Amino acid sequence: MAMTDSDWPQMMRINPLLNWTYSDVWSFLRSLSLPYCSLYDTGYTSIGSMEDTHPNPSLRYVTDSGLTEYRPAYALSDFHLERSGRRRPNPVPCEVVPKPNVN
Fold first, then answer.
1. pLDDT tens for residues 63-103?
2. How far apart (Å, rounded) are the C-alpha atoms in residues 37 and 56?
3. pLDDT tens across 45-59, in order?
4. Residues annotated as region Disordered (predicted)?
5. Cα separation of 68 and 85, whole Å?
6. Cα 75 vs. chain centroid, distance in angstroms?
7. Number of C-beta neighbours around residue 55 at 10 A
8. Nearest to 42 by CA among 66, 72, 67, 22
9. H-state helical runs in 2-102
10. 3-state DSSP call for residue 12?
11. Of 67, 19, 75, whose CA–CA distance to 45 is shortest?
């Protein structure tokens, strides 16, 4: 909850979603059968670009037949790992050149 800025008519703003947890969001979506991107059902927990988005390794498991599969995003138990499927870009290699002595 927060009051509006001083240059706006004064009223209390209430944004309940700001306090929702990862679990709260999934409980809401699933309890109302709301549509969402199907990638979340295949192990993706954070969706970005095609280059840096992968299934979350925290949801990976091996089936009885030896296949690697992924649980759905709502099965993630440690919500701090939500972005574990996002690969960080490789740093740009650079060469350090010593500064010449100027006397």
1. 999 999 999 999 999 999 999 988 765 555 656 666 677 66
2. 15
3. 999 888 889 999 999
4. 84-103
5. 15
6. 14
7. 19
8. 72
9. 22-31
10. strand
11. 75
pTM above 0.70, yes or no: no
Dihedral of alpha carbons 50, 56, 57, 61, sign: negative
- Count of CB atoms situated within 10 Å of the CB of 61: 11
Q: How far is CA 3 from the centre of its chain?
A: 29
What letter represents residue 40's amino acid?
A: Y
11, 4 Cβ separation under 8 angstroms: yes
Q: How far is CA 31 from CA 23, 39, 88, in A?
A: 12, 19, 33
- From the list 49, 50, 28, 44, the residue with the least C-alpha distance to 81 is 44
Structure tokens at 34: 């709301």
Token pair belonging to 96: 């350090």
Tell me which residue has tokens 């690969």. 87
